[in-house]
TrEMBL record:
Pfam families: EGF (PF00008), PAN_1 (PF00024)
Gene3D superfamilies named among the record's database cross-references: Laminin (2.10.25.10)
CDD domains: EGF_CA (cd00054)
Protein's name in the database: EGF-like domain-containing protein
Signal peptide: 1-20
Biased composition (Polar residues): 170-182
Sorted UniProt keywords: Disulfide bond, EGF-like domain, Signal
Domain EGF-like: 116-154
Disulfide bond annotation, renumbered to this chain: C125-C142, C144-C153
Domain of life from the UniProt record: Eukaryota
Positions of the UniProt region annotated as Disordered: 169-195
Annotated TM spans: none
Length: 261
């Protein structure tokens, strides 16, 4: 356990890696990130140093750590005389090893800095999902907007099993949607072959399990139902659609960058 609370926080925002050559296919790995170092004066972490060098300041020492993907903390020994350089040690370790071992020991003039990454800074949640940092900032989870699912909100969940929240409606066609169950079969028509219990059927009028099976609103109402914006990931996208043959009246459109595809 840490014997003293980590007490100081230094914000170093948007450190951008500028050294080294970057080939075209590596450009996406050029990063900028926001991090905190939690520092602890007069302490040194023993046993995890990978790189050691002379450094003029704690700030430069920690900046060097940011440029090493493996670096998780630093030990900086301040110069004993003005005009001299200090010593910077870059450490590599698991986070639990810092908190569980006795390898953090008191040493005058040495500052231990623990890098705490802020995982939400890279905006890992897709489709406007909200990133929520967990605990000490070492992990996160995504709160997905309606219609999306998955650990990164990467998957569309346009199956209407939880309603049609997030969809924009015009007109009256979709007032009583989604439809519960195989409503066409209930009135002895061809089966809906829907996915799950709920689906969108503009002709139907069974918006709850308790509503009368087989009831319809017919073809009179007009309207549109538009999904939230989503990101197409991968090479394929599939739809499960059925309906009449009048394209001028009934159709599904895939709109990409305001163009109907
Ligand atoms: Ca469904």
């Amino acid at each position: 356990m840490l014997r003293k609370a980590l007490h100081a926080i230094i914000l170093i925002a948007f450190q951008r890696e500028t050294s080294g050559e970057v080939s075209p296919n590596q450009k996406s790995s050029v990063f900028s990130r926001s991090v905190y170092f939690m520092t602890m004066n007069n302490n040194r972490l023993h046993g995890y140093v990978v790189e050691r060098f002379q450094s003029a300041s704690l700030l430069l020492c920690n900046q060097k750590c940011l440029r090493r993907e493996w670096c998780t903390s630093t030990n900086f020994k301040a110069p004993e005389q003005s005009g001299k350089t200090g010593t910077c040690g870059l450490n590599k370790h698991s986070y639990s090893s810092v908190f569980e071992s006795a390898s953090l020991r008191e040493e005058d003039g040495v500052t231990f800095s623990l890098l705490v990454k802020f995982p939400c800074h890279s905006k890992p949640c897709l489709n406007n999902g909200i990133c929520v940092q967990d605990g000490a900032g070492l992990s996160f989870h995504c709160v997905c907007k309606a219609g999306f699912a998955g650990t990164r909100c990467q998957a569309c969940k346009f199956d209407f099993e939880d309603g049609k929240d997030g969809w924009e409606k015009t007109g009256t066609t979709f007032n009583n949607q989604p439809t519960y169950g195989d409503n066409p079969t209930a009135r002895k028509r061809e089966p809906a072959k829907q996915q799950g219990d709920w689906w969108i059927g503009g002709y139907e009028d069974r918006p709850s399990e308790a509503a009368t099976p087989g009831r319809i609103q017919g073809d009179g109402p007009r309207g549109t139902l538009t999904s939230p914006f989503f990101k197409i990931i991968g090479a394929n996208i599939t739809f499960l659609i059925g309906g009449g043959c009048r394209m001028d009246f009934i159709r599904a459109e895939l709109v990409i960058n305001d163009q109907v595809e």
